[in-house]
Amino acid sequence: MTTCTRVAIVRTTPTTIHTDYTRLLELVGIQQIINPYGSTVLNLCKQKHFPFPGANTPPWQLESVASILQQCGHHRLFAPGQPTEKFRTLRGDDLDGYRSLLRAYHITEHNGTFFNGTEWYHSLAIPINLVCLHPLTLRPYVPLQRRFPPRRSHATDDHTVDYMHKQRAQCTHILTILDGSSIHIGDTVEVKNILIASTDLVAPYTVAAMLWGVEPLRDVSYIRMACEQGLGVGDDHNIALVGDITDKAYFKHSIGRNTNTSIRENPSILNNYYRWTSRERRIFESWLHHTE
User: Fold this and answer.
1) Alpha helices of 85-156 — where are they, by DSSP H?
2) Is 123 exposed, middle or buried (0-12, 13-18, 19+ CB in 10 A)?
3) What's the rounded Cα separation, in Å, for the pair 201 and 160?
4) Could you report the per-residue pLDDT of 196-233, keeping only the tens digit for each?
5) Which residue, among 135, 173, 157, 113, has the nearest Cα to 58 in the 3D structure?
6) What is the pLDDT of residues 65-99, one digit of tens each?
């Protein structure tokens, strides 16, 4: 009999976001899966230099999870250092406001490149906990390779799966948290107000694929590859939903249209890190002023 992987899903609102994150992590069992005596790495998603809904780790996600971890006794918190050396002239180097939160919650900025080398974890206490704080997207966040120009560097399926292998090899406990308060679909932004968490690297993105209206194993190649290599669960039949949404049919009809074009790599949208067009700025400002 196959054991089902638990994926916790909680509906949220802007006024109850912290309480909802607390309930989400209780559903997934944070006290049992994250060791408070080790170091906890907060893996932030930074797909764009400029703020954009659904592209980077939302500040409220970082603040809520860091606060909950500290309340649970986790005081060795680490996060990747924010870029400072090259693009300060582009209206600042911390436009998402992470640095003030890192200081407020005593999170140590680590200047090494997480999971792309072996030197970064020498200063961390064992065991190493990994908490992925990502927006709700179809593809896991993989840092751009610094040796390539941003316009030419994008995460292929092989690169994504290889990065997941490194995470699994170097971390003892892993927790993936996806914030779907706002999601980025093509050139639009939709407010969904759902939070997803799981101890599996692949299962949350399997649920995300269902939200996008596609079959995970059939239509999303990196999920199929990761599942075949034993990195996680890609079959929705082996996923047990807990929390506010337990009906899988909700995800299969949530957006209401098939967005297969979003599965393909699109460097002009997701991987052109430093681009900030007038159209993107209008989308961001409209989201900023007309949503809660």
Assistant:
1) 98-104
2) exposed
3) 11
4) 999 999 999 999 988 888 888 888 899 999 999 999 99
5) 135
6) 999 999 988 888 998 765 544 444 445 567 888 88
Q: How far apart are CA 17 and CA 268, in angstroms?
A: 32
> What DSSP string describes 97-112?
-HHHHHHHTTPEEE-S
pTM, two decimals, is 0.86
- Location of structure tokens 């679909």: 185
Nearest to 178 by CA among 21, 5, 63: 21
**Beta carbons of 194 and 9 less than 8 angstroms apart:** yes
- Sort strands 188-198 and 173-185 into parallel, antiparallel or unpaired: antiparallel
Closest CA to 75 of 32, 39, 112, 128: 39
Calculate the alpha carbon distances from 132 to 177, 217, 291 in Å: 6, 22, 25
Domain ranges of the chain: 5-290
**Spatial contact of 284 and 48, defined as CB atoms under 8 Å apart:** no
Per-residue pLDDT reduced to its tens digit, 236-285: 889 999 999 888 777 765 654 444 434 444 444 444 566 677 888 888 88
Would you place residue 101 in the very low, low, confident or very high pLDDT band (cuts 50, 70, 90)? Answer: very high
Residues in Cβ contact with 66 at an 8 Å cutoff, skipping those fewer than 6 apart: 42, 77, 101, 105, 107
Identity of the amino acid at 212: W
